[in-house]
Specification:
Blueprint (H helix, E strand, L loop, with lengths): L2 E7 L7 E3 L5 E5 L6 H13 L18 E8 L6 E8 L2 E6 L2 E2 L3 H7 L2 E4 L5 H4 L2 H15 L3 H20 L3 H40 L6 E5 L8 H7 L1 H7 L10 E6 L2 E2 H4 L2 H23 L4 E4 L2 H4 L2 H14 L3 E5 L3 H4 L7 E7 L2 E5 L2
Parallel strand pairs: 3-13, 3-14, 8-12, 12-13
Antiparallel strand pairs: 1-2, 1-4, 4-5, 5-6, 6-7, 9-10, 10-11, 14-15
Length: 359
């Protein structure tokens, strides 16, 4: 579902804008600090209610304004839809065709966005939480019942932790039954997804770099040789002392290995970037196979993240996906000299003002 129109007011240094992007490829170039990344940030905010640049939304707001207002027109099989987000004093308000959306997940499901930007490459070297969130983005978008099951699990985890914190051992077994049932459902969704994801990833990595091969394995959040019930029974006394649940889906992650070693420890910076790009691209490929339509890609400062050979390979995958793409660079030629897709628009950002140029 490509974006037909983007309107933004109050985001960082950007002047109020109305942008009519191409349904396929959009190149956005400008000097550092000109505001080009803020255009991508606007789209990501509409999808997730979060910025990929900062954890504090107050830093996204223009210093001279008290609110951020974003809206888009989407093209879809069910007709045109207007979708908007309003932020004021940290509060979110999502609307679809004038009606308030009850949950941010409703927004994410309508606007599936994948980001490839400098911080994305922490996916290898960062915390297990980052790899868990990556995995769950994919599961959420291909398994409709996942989000409700995840909410149920989080609720049960909260209750179980409260029992542990209060050291109410007599209540632990009561909460364990529901906790284990919800945990196993979450685990099943993730296993099914990764079974389908691995072949897509292997093929994509081969396209980006035929000489590079890494392995993906799934850690469910507890000892794989034991059932979760057995694990919880073994560590019950220890958990009662600590006051929180040590094992479960909230500790799951994808482990990425190169020759049986942690990929982040042995691969070069360039190889790590290639692996992460393959992970993100494979996720989009599987999304399209599962839903029938591709996600939107936001690629920030591509030229600084990959060399020309790997940029060309990445862009070819995006071309084959036939998805809507927004790519930023400092100079127009940094990307256009590598890739000129059949359909695209070019935008220039200067001192917070954006203008369309002849392709």
């Amino acid at each position: 579902m490509p974006i037909r129109r983007l309107s933004a007011r109050g985001i960082r240094i950007l002047e109020p804008l109305v942008l009519y992007p191409h349904p396929r490829v959009n190149f956005i170039y400008g000097d550092n600090g000109s505001g080009k990344t803020s255009v991508l940030e606007s789209i990501h905010l509409l999808s997730s209610g979060k910025s990929f640049r900062t954890h504090q939304l107050k830093h996204v707001l223009n210093r001279e304004l008290d609110r951020l207002e974003l809206s888009i027109d989407l093209d879809g099989d069910d007709g045109d839809s207007l979708y908007s987000l309003r932020l004021k004093n940290g509060d979110h308000l999502f609307r679809l065709n004038g009606s308030v959306l009850s949950a941010q997940a409703d927004a994410a499901s309508r606007l599936p966005v994948l980001v490839i930007e400098p911080n994305t490459f922490r996916l290898l070297s960062g915390s297990p939480e980052e790899r868990r969130q990556f995995m769950d983005w994919g599961v959420f978008h291909v398994e409709a019942s996942f989000i409700e099951q995840w909410r149920t699990f989080r609720n049960l985890l909260k209750q179980r932790n409260a029992v542990l914190k209060q050291k109410e051992a007599e209540w632990l077994s009561i909460w364990n039954d529901g906790f284990i049932e919800a945990a196993e459902k979450i685990d099943g969704y993730r296993r099914d997804y990764l079974t389908r994801f691995k072949p897509a990833f292997d093929q994509t990595l081969k396209q980006l770099d035929p000489k590079l091969s890494v392995g993906l394995s799934y850690y469910p959040g507890w000892d794989k040789q034991l059932s979760l019930a057995e694990v919880l029974e073994k560590q019950a006394e220890r958990e009662m002392q600590l006051g929180f649940t040590q094992s479960g889906p909230h500790r799951a992650e994808i482990r990425i290995k190169f020759e049986k070693q942690n990929a982040a420890d042995v691969l070069s910076r360039g190889q790590q970037k290639t692996v992460v790009a393959a992970l993100k691209l494979a996720q989009g490929i599987l999304f399209k196979e599962s839903t029938g339509s591709p996600p939107i890609y936001l690629v920030d400062d591509l030229a600084s993240e990959l060399d020309s050979c790997h940029r060309l390979a990445l862009c070819q995958v995006l071309e084959d996906l036939k998805c809507q793409v927004f790519i930023t660079s400092i100079e127009k030629g940094q990307v256009l000299d590598t890739w000129q897709p059949s359909e695209y628009k070019v935008f220039h950002v200067e001192q917070g003002q954006i203008s369309e140029e002849s392709a």
